[in-house]
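Is Isopentenyl phosphate placement plausible here? Inputs below.
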Amino acid sequence: MMKKLLIIKLGGAAITDKKSLKTAKTDIIKKIAEQIKILHEQKYKIIIVHGAGSFGHILANEYGFNGEDNLNLNENMGLGVSKIRNSVQKLNQIILDIFDDYNIKSYSIPVSSNILKMGKLDGKLEFFNLFNLALENNLIPITYGDICLNDGIEKFKIISGDYIMEELVKKIDGEKYVIFGSNVDGYYEYNDGEKNIIHKIKFSEIDKIIKNKFDEDYIDVTGGIKGKLRSISNLGKHVNQVDLINLEKDNAILDLIDENIELKTTFTK
Ligand code: IP8
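Reply from A.M.:
I modeled the complex. Tokens:
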């Protein structure tokens, strides 16, 4: 039987300590590696996209890449681009090294090796073929939120892992299962001071939720949970289901695949 392609986002908050510059949660990354290894052995095709966490957002803020259009270019920004790119590459290397310890066949594909066209990844790019080719050869492509050179008014642009997820889902063929891993048990709201996980949300309801109040992480230059919900809403145009789970929990990915997980948010048509 053909196995689905799993496209898994490792959220920055799950794999790094977002408050502490360049601090990876290696224990969590090891837990994830264990599960990826098992799923790959079970013949799932897998693409990994990881966030930048404290290797990207803190520096991005410091150098003025705050989510607004970066039209007011100053000399410092070039230095920022260099430092941010270096730093997210370092996080990628930490993940690759841990995956390597588990003999996971990963293949790193950084988006910053592409020129963006008007702030977007160009659909015609060989870039996406690399993912297909890696998958065909039983490798696990791994990419991440990054800072890229841009052919447009803005010279540099931060590309979030969530946006990459959207593009991958559009451009990679086959049946896909999309998983967003975070450090929370799902999407939650506070009712009378109590935190409540919303277990099921329709893609069509997301716009309404975005207009409501929710937790916003101020150092997240790519929009925090709001940006994530927007991406999930866009993904709803291409897939039937997206699951949001807590990667800090042991075996969260395996339990989700085995339909043996209680706390999660499932987004559906
Ligand atoms: O953590 C952001 O990617 P994200 C990338 O997936 C940078 O939103 C460089 C801040």
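Short version: The chain has a mean pLDDT of 91.
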